[in-house]
Amino acid sequence: MPDRDWLIRLAPPCFVVIWSTGFIAAKYSMANADPFVFLCLRFAITAAALVPILLLAGADLPRNPWRFRHDMVTGVLLHCGYLGFVFWPIKNGVPSGIVAIVIGLQPIVTTVLATLFIGEMLDARKVAGLLIGFLGIAVVILGKYGVSLGLEGGLEPSDLALCVIGLLSIASGVFYQKKFCDQQRILPGTLMQYVAGTLATAGFALVLHESWRVDWTPVFAIALCWQVLGLSIGAVLLLMAIIRRGEAGRVSSMFYLVPPLVVIEAHFLFDETLGLLSLAGMLMCVGGVYLVNRPRTA
After folding, report:
1. Band of the pLDDT at 1, cuts 50, 70, 90?
2. Closest CA to 222 of 32, 54, 88
3. Contact predicate 72/192, CB 8 Å
4. Is the model's pLDDT at 86 over the cut of 60?
5. What distance in Å separates the CA atoms of residue 190 and residue 205, rounded to the nearest whole number?
6. In 3D, which of 234, 283, 275 has the Cα closest to residue 256?
7. For the segment 215-264, what is each residue's pLDDT rounded down to a tens digit?
8. How far apart are CA 12 and CA 246, in angstroms?
């Protein structure tokens, strides 16, 4: 049991590190395909890859979609709604700093939902941690992009609306997974999430008149493989397991650590600047997550 406890404690930091690489991989991918077309391809490959994994694990393949209807709703929210409406505004030129700050509200929204509808406790320490974490994200982004956040010419209301849709999708997706999904069927449930995500992203690609042309390059293929194996399978299965064992609000607070890690990764991979203000914001994020997840004293 000590070995298992060690693995459980290691799961959240592993998830955060893997999840943060998705934004770096997306930078290599979005120039080769439109957002929803790329996500449709990614989710379809992921669903196909999960089938042999289920068989090797001895799990039954889903035969009755109705039994997995809640998992499919989670898939539409977490995969299509969140990623699609984050990638789309960035593809249209919205500065990633604006998107990051809007999405940074996600732990707060999820905690409010969990408090109202699941009955999770919301004390002063958790509130303080959530607010400090969000302020930390804002400081990190300001340190990277400046007060203007890299925005020139104003922000279109439609672009801001897309960011808000992405925010509400991931916040409600984490809450919905915790409240409605069968936590004992992680593998088949995740497979059905990606089946629903594939169908939903295909629908949005058609509605938005995206091009189905994909420019296959070696860099794009490597980035796609990592997003399928590392993110869509590895990170998402870790997230499902963490949600199964923890409160939705505490799980969501981990997302505060993603933007600082993205800034660090971009600094080393793309030689982007990393100032003292961003470093101070990272420490605030870590402090906020610690406050939210610190065990309660008797």
Report:
1. very low
2. 32
3. yes
4. yes
5. 22
6. 283
7. 999 989 999 999 999 999 999 888 888 887 776 667 778 888 887 887 78
8. 11
274 — pLDDT class (breaks 50, 70, 90)? low
Give the C-alpha separation, 73 to 204, whole Å: 16
- Other Cβ atoms closer than 10 A to 9: 9
Position 47, amino acid: A
- Domain locations along the chain: 11-59+68-293
Kindly report the backbone phi and psi dihedral angles of residue 265, in degrees, each rounded to the nearest multiple of 5, phi listed first: -65, -40
220, 32 contact by CB (below 8 A):
yes
Q: Cβ atoms within 10 A of the Cβ of 276, count?
A: 8
The mean pLDDT of 169-179, rounded to a whole number, is: 89
- DSSP annotation of 295 reads P
For residue 76 the two structure tokens come to 């539409």
Q: For the chain, what percent of residues have pLDDT higher than 70?
A: 89
Helix, coil or strand: residue 64:
coil
Q: How far is CA 130 from CA 85, 126, 165, 251, in A?
A: 23, 6, 21, 12
The three state secondary structure string of 95-131 is CHHHHHHHHCCHHHHHHHHHHHHCCCCCCHHHHHHHH
Residue 95 pLDDT level (bands cut at 50, 70, 90): low
For residue 136 the two structure tokens come to 């930390």
Enter the tokens of residue 176: 């919905």
Nearest to 164 by CA among 89, 114, 93, 91: 89
Alpha carbons 264 and 218: distance in angstroms, whole number = 25
Q: What is the pLDDT of residues 62-72, one digit of tens each?
A: 989 999 999 99
